[in-house]
Amino acid sequence: MDISSDTYRTLAKPSKQVLYKDKKSKFFGYAFPINKEDEVKPIIESLRNKHSSANHVCYAWQLGVVDPSYRANDDGEPNNSAGMPIYGQIQSYEVTQVLIAVARVFGGTKLGVGGLISAYKATAQMALDAAVIVKKTLQQRFRLSFAYPEMDIVMRTIKQRQLNLVSQKMELDCEMIISVRLKDSEEVYGYFKGVQGVKIEEVD
């Protein structure tokens, strides 16, 4: 990714439930913003509990911006008939840091693979249409370590450059965590690197 295009699209909050019907089968769709893979399993389990009569809870997620990772799960539906159509909508809407899940309650009539693909795709699309999509900026965090006499120049730089101060520890040895827009990170790093008495390092 070009560091100058350090923005990405994601969801402001979970979408409201949507419902798609086909031959008496019901497809309940949801879209969630997520930050890490560990969040997926609890959300899926909660949907299984909510839709106890659902035969399948299929989903897809994508995480990351520069080098995104993803997973698609058919949850017992025919191979690639559910998870990948859902993931296709994540790609179509160009969103990331997102989980889309669809709970299917079987209506008694088989839809066939083509019907399933259409239904899961349509439900994922409805869930994303119901969501609020926002643009966010990639950030890089730095830890600044310095003695108290350097406080003035550090604070003045943070204010002048409008950097985001995440946390601070003010003692004889001071420590601050700042958050910098990714495209500005090299410049800010280079600046503080040149300030005598200030140590700067990247943090996750």
Automatic annotation (TrEMBL):
By its UniProt entry, which SUPFAM superfamilies does this protein fall under? Answer: Ribosomal protein S5 domain 2-like
Q: Which residues form the Impact N-terminal domain?
A: 23-128
The family database entries (Pfam families) matched by this protein are listed as:
Impact_N
Q: Which InterPro entries match?
A: Impact, Impact_N, Impact_N_sf, Ribosomal_Su5_D2-typ_SF
Can you tell me which family this protein belongs to? Belongs to the IMPACT family.
PANTHER family named among the record's database cross-references: IMPACT FAMILY MEMBER YIGZ, IMPACT-RELATED
Q: What is this protein called?
A: YigZ family protein
- Which species? Pricia mediterranea
